[in-house]
Amino acid sequence: MDITIHHTFLPHDDPDTALSFYRDTLGFEVRNDVGHGGMRWITVGPPNQPGTSIVLYPPATTPGLTDDERRMIAEMMAKGTFGIVVLATKDVDAVFDRLQARGAEVVQEPVDQPYGVRDCAFRDPAGNLIRIQQAS
Q: Which of 5, 48, 61, 63 counts the highest number of beta carbons within 10 A?
């Protein structure tokens, strides 16, 4: 089989703040920005990977959610336990320094993990965990 990752989804609770983080802090390009009924879906991705994107979406639009589930998602987002994405770079220390200098919320400084990778972690403005690993 020939399968690739085309889109993945991360929730946001403020489209302008999410856009600023992914575009200005991470350096992703904006591929689409769609609004409907006061909500926005923003598609971003690394400039050198046009076939892989992250869609930043308002979680309230997920079909079939109850009010209790919506509240739970909001609570999990606030704690940083709902959305996670793992990115890779050739120089995790340099990326860490750049993101920290741009004001990104640090969760973990670069460290060599016991499972064989060097990585660091940040939170985006919605609370999503952004792990960045050293690419081999």
A: 61
- Do residues 18 and 32 make contact, with C-beta atoms less than 8 angstroms apart? no
Contacts of 90 by beta carbon, 8 Å cutoff, 6+ apart: 134, 135
Q: In this predicted model, what pLDDT tens digit does every residue of 44-78 receive, in sequence order?
A: 999 999 999 999 999 888 889 999 998 999 899 88
pTM of the predicted model as reported, rounded to 2 decimal places: 0.91
For residue 70 the two structure tokens come to 């919506």
Distances in Å between the Cα of 118 and the Cα atoms of 26, 44, 93 are 19, 25, 9
Would you say 82 and 67 are in contact if contact means Cβ atoms under 8 Å apart? no
Residue type, 67: D
Strand-strand pairing, 84-89 and 105-112: unpaired
Helix/strand/coil percent split, the chain, to 5: 25, 40, 35
- The Cα–Cα gap between 28 and 73 comes to 25
